[in-house]
Each structure stands twice: as structure tokens, then as C-alpha cells.
Amino acid sequence: MYAFEYHRPATLKQAASLLRKNVNARALSGGQSLIPALKLRLASPPALVDLGGIEELHGIKLEAAVLSIGAMTRHNEVAASKDVAIGIPALARLAADIGDRQVRNMGTLGGSLANNDPAADYPAAVLGLGASVHTNKRKIPADRFFTGLYETALKAGEIITRVSFPLPKRAAYVKFRNPASRYAIAGVFVSEGGGSVRLAVTGAANCVFRVTEMETKLTEKFAAEAIANVRVPADQLNSDIHAGAEYRSHLITVIAQRAVESALAGK
Questions:
Q1: What is the pTM of this model?
Q2: 158 CB neighbour count, 10 Å cutoff
């Protein structure tokens, strides 16, 4: 690692001030991506601002028709939460299947979203549920938050504070995982609620995305066979050592159907 300053503020205001004073500083959440990058010398920020001691960034609340989760809430906390199990059980199951035990005990919701790894699970849930990402400065709809490969709408010094998820009528997440990393080679989160359907795909392209053709057909008829013949064009997808674009195109359709079946079955 390179030498750097380490700060552990107690309040959001202090954290924002530290980041504002040093535009090249990095906020540290769970550290499951940033710390390895530092070890490999792929990143060399002059300062780290650890958000772990900020109480207001932790916690889960289920109020009316909204599930609110603090940015520093760990994956295992989401997986074990009774409120999440009641409000959006698909989100609890998603969190329980992220990485390994170390990742689930250290990784955070906010850190995952800010990093926006193209194969991460949480972005699919946020986009697939039409959630909103709240920061210390504003509220960002999911459709405007994810902007590209490891890129988001966050501006310098902006800190994710929580995510608010509208409760769906039903939802499910299915992924075809890499057996080593457990990242999604392709993953689909589908939700139905408010008279419409949202379907988001992760792991298959440079950034999480929605499949509007599938959403239209599922709004008309929420059944697996409704999207059996819908394909995402391969030229929009990634090819790598794990899977080719044509394979991912086929996989998305298969997994999307399984997600719909899981949502109907309440699994």
C-alpha cells in the first residue's frame, strides 16, 4: 500500500467536511473493493475517510410502504433483518447470497452502490425495485444513479446516507454465479407493483440495465412464458473468460423466466 492519512469521523457533517477539504480523499465503507485495490496499488488516495463510526448511516426501518436501509448497513444485517424479510424478502435472499461470510460481514449497501461493480447484486435490486439513493445533498432515483462502468451520479464529496425501497407486490432475484467469486455472470431482479413491472440485469454488461421489452410483456401478463422469446442483443453485452456475449444473451432470458417463476411462487 501507499502511505495515506486515516480519518474516522463520528458524524456525517465531519465526514463531508473531510472529503470537501481533500477532493482526492476516498470514503471507506466496508472496504471489500477499496482495500484490495490499495493492496494491489490500483488506487492511491492521499486520505481515507472511514464512515463506519457514523451512527446515522446504520439501520433498517420499515414504515408504511417503504423500506429504508442505511448506507453502512452490512449485507448480513440485511439478510437477517425481520423488516426486510417482511417488506422485501427477495432483497434478504439477495443479501444472503453475496460473496462469502467475510464479504457479507464487512461489505455495505452504500459501498456496493457507490462502487457500482458491473457484476454486483445490489445495483440490480435498486434498479429493479425503482429505489431512491439518498445522499447528504439530495435524493437520486435509481434510473439516474448508475451511469456506467464503475460510475454513478455521485459528485465529489457526496456521501450515500440511505436507500429507500418501495415495497413491491412481489419480487425475486436469480443469478448465475461465478463459482469462485460468487459475482453474477448474469443476474436478474424482477418486481411487480403499482400496476407495472421492472426488470434489471447485472453481470452481463458494463453497467446494470433494465430490459424494457420484458417489462412491457410482463406488465401485460406476469408469467414466464410471456418473455420466453425476448432476447437482449449480444452486441450490447460483455464477452470475457467466464462467458461470451451470445451465451449471456441466452442466459438473461432463461434467468429472467426463473425470476418471474420465483416471484410468483413467493421464493
A1: 0.95
A2: 18
